[in-house]
Design goal:
By secondary structure, the protein is of the alpha/beta class. It has 13 helices and 11 strands. The strands form 2 sheets. Strands 3, 4, 5, 6, 7, 8, 9, 10 and 11 form a 9-stranded mixed β-sheet that branches. A two-stranded antiparallel sheet has the order 1-2. Helix 4 runs antiparallel to helix 5, helix 5 runs parallel beside helix 7 and helix 6 packs across helix 12.
Length: 416
């Protein structure tokens, strides 16, 4: 969960690259950087990739999100698919659609650049203050919202305010790295949780186009990227006890009010780690933590701590962006405890060389679910979660869920 901004996509055949011209009634060899959605836009002026997929199922296989460089596709003629490239009914509609698309694309590009520059400044010897990063994100968010509003108004005023059906567009999901064994681009299948989400989508809606992007600044998911509806879903996040909102922190209440949650794809043990010999590693009661400084990474829910009275001013809470910083803080005395998920802690402690120096308190732990979240303002959000829940149920009934989990955990144990 470092601050570097890194983006990738499974929908791409490989790294970006130039492709030759495409047109209907022809064949085409897949180039580096192609996706069915982008080809459909170029050839048929629509995001409905199924025109190409339906004509090339034997070549592509069961998953339209995975295409291979060098495979040859057939682009059917317009009359063969029973449709022509959609033409706006009026010149005003055509101009409005083009202007809207250009506005939003330009705003998103500027926003991404602004965020990347701000994050890079922080990463480079922390030359920029936290305030500068917050201001850059706020400006980017405002710009995207303004562009989206202007684009929507242009289309609405032109008489075409309809939104593409969910099956006719590409879903955009976002996650982040440095969260072994669950999500990281260096892990097999980009992590246990990523594999579960992709498999659920494939089982429940094999023809649904989607793209998963990695943005390693986890806080930006909730502060900027999801609220602006730049992405349809984000994972993995814990669900606070929304049924008892009065007991939650402000950030957790906001999460309950703003997001819908999938069924749990996985459950983790959230526990406490302390310096060996501090006494906190053997505590039997949460009351013994009163007066301590507890480190909990930014963006991580504190609902299990709130429920047992571990909130300010009873404790002091430290919220760095990078989980590694919590372990450094315990070692140098800035924090007494790290409140964190056990899998991540074991990996980080070993990697940082703190084995036998920072140890787990085995007496005080909570079981927490990891879920996919969609923003309540997203009109497709509930349908997306329903699809994922259906896929999850299929995997659990078939035993595939268990196979994916055991394979990932075995890899983690063998490779540290």
């Amino acid at each position: 969960m470092r601050t570097h901004l890194i983006i990738s996509s499974i929908a791409l055949a490989a790294a970006t690259g130039a492709a030759s011209a495409q047109e209907a009634c022809s064949t085409y060899e897949i180039q580096r950087g192609d996706s069915l959605r982008e080809l459909a836009i170029k050839v048929y002026a629509t995001e409905d990739y199924r025109i190409i997929y339906d004509a090339n199922r034997d070549t592509i296989g069961p998953n339209p999100n995975i295409i291979r460089v060098g495979d040859v596709l057939t682009f059917p003629c317009l009359e063969d698919v029973g449709r022509a490239a959609p033409e706006p009914e009026t010149e005003a509609e055509r101009m409005a659609a083009e202007m809207a698309a250009e506005l939003v694309k330009a705003a998103e590009e500027r926003a991404a650049k602004a965020i990347a520059e701000a994050e890079a400044r922080v990463a480079e010897a922390q030359q920029a203050s936290d305030k500068a990063v917050i201001e850059a994100k706020a400006a980017a968010k405002k710009e995207i919202e303004a562009a989206r509003a202007e684009g929507a108004a242009l289309i609405r005023n032109a008489g075409d305010g309809t939104r593409p059906e969910i099956r006719d567009r590409q879903l955009l999901l976002i996650t982040g790295g440095n969260y072994a064994p669950f999500t990281d681009e260096a892990l097999p299948n980009r992590g246990l949780y990523t594999n579960l989400v992709e498999t659920a989508m494939l089982r429940a809606a094999p023809e649904q186009a989607y793209k998963i992007q990695f943005v390693n600044d986890w806080s930006s998911h909730l502060d900027l990227l999801m609220p602006t509806l730049a992405f349809d879903a984000t994972f993995p996040w814990s669900r606070p006890n929304c049924e008892e909102a009065e007991t939650l922190s402000e950030s957790d209440r906001n999460r309950c009010e703003t997001y819908n949650f999938s069924n749990p794809f996985y459950e983790v043990v959230d526990t406490f780690f302390a310096k060996d010999g501090s006494g906190y590693e053997t505590s039997l009661s949460y009351a013994e933590f009163v007066g301590t400084t507890i480190c909990r990474p930014e963006g991580w829910s504190t609902s299990h701590m709130d429920a047992v009275g571990l909130y300010e001013p009873a404790i002091t809470i430290l919220r760095p962006v990078d989980p590694d910083e919590c372990f450094h803080a315990v070692m140098d005395g800035r924090a007494d405890l790290v409140a964190i998920e056990a899998h991540l802690a074991v990996e980080a402690i070993g990697r940082l060389g703190y084995e036998h120096k920072i140890i787990e308190n085995p007496n005080l732990a909570a079981i927490k679910s990891l879920n996919v979240m969609t923003h309540k303002d997203n009109p497709d959000g509930e349908a997306i979660l329903e699809t994922l829940n259906q896929g999850l149920a299929i995997m659990q009934q078939s035993g595939e869920w268990r196979d994916i989990v055991s394979t990932a955990l075995r890899y983690q144990m063998e490779n540290g």
